[in-house]
């Protein structure tokens, strides 16, 4: 694994299962879903000055 680009994180199993389900329902990878959740968190904390994600496409949740 390219450790300059990717890192592993440890999360409780129930968090992983929920993030995985959210990602699948919205057509994203787990990494993409975690990035989106983190962006939502930063916005809720008022951090609008930081760099925006370089991800492409619409980041709104997709209808089921």
Describe the model.
This protein has 64 residues and is an all-alpha fold. It has a domain at 13-44. Helix content is 44%, strand content 0%. It has helices at 13-25, 30-44. Helix 1 (13-25) crosses helix 2. The mean pLDDT is 82.
Q: What's this, in brief?
A:
The protein is mainly α and 64 residues long. It has helices at 13-25, 30-44. The protein starts with 12 loop residues before the first helix and ends in a 20-residue tail after the last helix.
What series of H and E elements makes up the topology?
HH
> The biggest beta sheet, please?
none
The whole-angstrom Rg is 13 Å
Strand portion = under 5%
Unreliable runs: none
How far is the first residue's CA from the last residue's CA?
33 Å
> Judging from the principal axes of the Cα atoms, what is the shape?
globular
- The total count of strands amounts to 0
């Amino acid at each position: 694994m390219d450790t300059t680009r990717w890192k592993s994180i440890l999360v409780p199993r129930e968090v992983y299962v929920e993030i995985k389900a959210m990602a699948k329902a919205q057509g994203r990878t787990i990494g993409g879903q975690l990035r989106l959740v983190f962006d939502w968190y930063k916005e809720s904390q008022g951090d609008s000055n930081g760099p925006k994600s370089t991800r492409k496409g619409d980041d709104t949740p997709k209808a089921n």
